[in-house]
Request: fold
Amino acid sequence: MQAVILAAGLGSRLEDKTKYMPKGFIELNGIAIVEWSVQKLINAGIDKIIIGTGHCSNFYDDLAKKYSVIRTIKNYDYANVGSMATLDICVDLIDDDFLLLESDLIYDKAGLNVLINDRRSNIVLASGATCSGDEVYIEIGKNDLLKNISKKKDELANAGAELVGISKVSLKLLKSMRLFFDKNKKDFPKLDYEKVLASVSTGDCPVFVKKIQYYAWREIDDNNHLEMAKKEILPRIIENESLYSVEREVLLNPGPATTTDSVKYAQICPDICPREKKFGGIMRWICDELSAMVGKKENIKTVLFGGSGTAADEAMISSCIPDDGKLLIVNNGAYGLRLAKIAEVYKINFEIYESSGFLPIDIETLKSKLIDGKFTHIAIVYHETTTGLLNPVPEICRFCREYGIVTIVDAVSAFAAIPIDMDRDCIDFMASTSNKNIQAMAGAAFVFCRKQALENIKNYPMRNYYLNLWSQYLHFEKSKQMRFTPPVQTLYALRQAIIETKIETIEKRYARYSACWKELVKTVDELKLKMLVPLKHQSKMITAVLEPKSPKYNFDDFHDFAQKSGFTIYPGKISQADTFRIANIGDIKVWEMQEFCRILKKYMEEI
Ligand code: PLP
Ligand code: MG
Ligand code: MG
Reply:
């Protein structure tokens, strides 16, 4: 669903506060009221927000730079017309049913869910009495139909509810609103959208009223409203919304990563048969958006599976090498070794290229090995999660492209943090999963495929039934369905995580991860602990720290100590050294990492 925010007005009743600024930018608790609203819409799964602007429109244009989901369109005649004229101007950007909101509202997010989850297409949200001094009253008819709207109580037979300023509007209703406006705009250019709503609500296109008696909301039109909002309403909203928050556990293990509450809540969705067209559309959207994160959408095909990251690895290794092919697998950690184990199971013709677990790959030797051994394929892990060592994948793959060697990359823990362009970086196949840097739930695996490379495998032997890449791709292209039952709720969460990743951007996500890593490294240095991988080869996402020599040190004690404060840590995974690993991927704030660093210090100082 989309949203439209009407934000053209002058806000003249707020006097000097809105002389050089739209009303929506008045701040409460340091956040503009329209930004509160935008964040709530995004958290409710809205991925397109159209804002009809007018007075001081540049403020909204700047907001759109911060939130990629926002599109703005300006009503130049804003000083002379009403809100319906602004809605009319937004129409070219609207291509689906939408939530319609005013820009000067603060509200409890529950109102959005109530409208989204209601089966009826056209609904206005209403509350009991607010005593705000600027009420818009609603007369509710039989069967909750919207009968009339007025600011004057005595114009209505029964002024039983108040209009909030959040509605759900179908494309069909929008059409009749515009027809009505066309007929009347000459005489009434200042028509408000709510008047039009009440005028067009008919048997053919009924508008219903959904009343929540004690709904917490306020429209801010004057200084009195602003005072009420600050003192009374916002604290109530914050209290109400805190009742839905999920216990915070910061996962410092290398995936599944910490997620936002909105991603967790995205799993609470209506039951749906995954063979329905609607769900097919969601999967299509997910695949296209994931493709766009690693290249040009037309060149990259994302193939989705139910499964963990290893499933995506297994799909690649079992599907992408012909019987007469020869695969070189780079092994510098547990995940490189896992690729080799998979190749062994499928009796692929392969060799292992061994490299140090904590020093960079010697690229020149690797290149000679590839050429001398007449390898047709290479498989390599982008980011060895075992140690936090980042492999020079683009450099290796560019070389391979020159020599016609197909490149298969495990980017399970690199994707959505390290900026990757499969065209630029010459990657043919690349595996990842929903539960790492994309910050969604475990259960979905995906393989990104360069379109031509994918076409080339179509006649390769089918060594695995469930995980065959070509069959899964073909089936989805034809039917918009996975061959077998998809992890429905995991995919809803993935959809939300994609929206949030696009807003943060992969570059800024990596910058956040790097800032967390910096905090950690600073503390590790202060404690005179040693790290396994030299700083400049670290991914800045996972840090393997050598365990202290103290006889009092015990990983399990350390783990339990951190867990008491809501942090989960992870043991090491290589046999050559005793390490513990701290990952900083996922929805982790810098201040949370600072908090963990205090705990790390405390434990180490105590022992
Ligand atoms: N490859 C890499 C680089 C990983 O980091 C992981 C998991 O941490 C995997 C593969 C396997 O993923 P999963 O445990 O989801 O099967
Ligand atoms: Mg209003
Ligand atoms: Mg208003």
